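Record type: ASSEMBLY
Status: queued
Input:
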Amino acid sequence: MKRANRIMTVLIFIFLYIPMVVLIVASFNTGKDITDFSGFTLKQYARLFQDRSLLKLLGNSLLISVLASFIATVFGTVAALGIHNLNPKMRKVAMTLTDIPMTNPDIVTGVSLSLLFVFVGTKMLGQRNSLTFWTLLIAHITFNLPYVILNVMPKLKQMDASLTDAAMDLGCTRVQAFFKVTIHEIMPGVVSGAIMAFTMSLDDFVISYFVTGPSFITLPVEIYSYTKKPIQPKIYAMFTLLFLIIFALMTAMNLTQLVSDRKKAASHLGH
Amino acid sequence: MKKNKTVFLSVPYLVWMTAFTLIPLCVVAYYALTDPVTGSFSLGNVKELSLYMPVLWRSIGYSLVSAVLCLLLGYPVAYYIAHCGHVAQKFLYMLVMLPMCMSFLLRTLAWVGLLQDTGILNNILAAIGLPRLRMIRTPGAVVLGMVYNYLPYMILPLYSTIVKIDGRLIEAAEDLGCNGIQVFSKVVLPLSVPGILSGMTMVFVPAVSTFYISQKLGGTDTVLIGDVIERQFKQGSNPNLGAALSLLLMILVFVCTGIMNRFGGSSEEGSVMV
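Status: finished
Output:
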């Protein structure tokens, strides 16, 4: 049984990684197409760094995901504090609102926001092009917020409420109590919410595709347009570099966590 | 009560979410019930939906098959990872998550390169003297694309539930005379139900609404509901019909997730992500 599971796991990992191997191999290919490998070259990497337009698109993607996840993290954390203290009925309302973008298919979220922006833009403000950087930012903040809320709320629930009371009895204002006590207690939730929001934003294609206009394009939206025009091989070089960066980041995060787990375990033993 | 003073902090959030989730849905309903030409109230778009029922059933069919396949393929993997050592668990979990962080558009394009008639797999077949197969633009290719893209969404919640199962329960079942299969069917499987349901939902919802996978890997006979919606908006056909189709899709998804939640009772931490 164990053996069968192991074989299955190996096969599934091969299945998950084969397309990425194909893309990485394609980035070193001298041939025109992904399907025929005719020789090794690094020229796609050179081209990638000469091509301002592609780097600019990556910059756009990073800009929107950093901004949206940062705003959503601050906004969502503050909101979570409020929701936590709402009466049960209103809290249910807030959580239902939070669930809407989580349950709705991305295409419905994208379509509904784009119709709203077009409706408000053209019918109420008389704009000709109502889909811009700002509509994209609003959309990203909106689908990022639930990730922050859903990560912070459990931490608030776990936190001992008397901690804040104690801080305030000792003379803290409500704001000081937040920055001196609460924030440290909920930090793991805030961080994982922010990371999730950032990755969701960076990789989002479907919602962005519907809510952005020609004035501000992100990398995934550009890649989608390769359905109509031939794909530029330097995009494989970019994929390979991003793969390496994300792999390195994830490994580093895992290692630091393992080290801190070890330390904790060791200090427990010491007691 | 002291704590009521922070309640006001939730107000901007409630306003924001109403403005950008609830009101947009009302705008969708408004467009769905409006005639594209005259702009007056009309049930024309809703009536036209019946033409798209075959497409809807096909989308549901493909995504259900994909969700079941993901479960069958993902369960052994999740089970295996959950029973590895601490370090290996962390590493394998990361390897499951990593593809989710990479562009799914490019990864799907890679499958086109693998499956197409003069693609990598067919070249391999030809090189070893076997006949070429027609793989791309078939229903199988679309299902493969769905399974490939959404399998991690199945493995991660399954792993999170399986890893929490108390080992002593399994020992107890063994002590009471269960064999391996009985332990699995009477203890492990029932306790994995929350993970199974949340995995099924997390595969089904994006699969039923996809348009990229079917555009790249499918043909004219595998058009899905997402394709039709995308076309109404982006190729300028009829946004009002697109709005009606979106509403239909949304209702379908809410009914399906509602049924799933009913099955599993109230699963509190159903949506396990990272």
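Annotation: Chain B has one domain: 51-263.
Annotation: Chain B touches chain A through 93 residues (CB under 8 Å).
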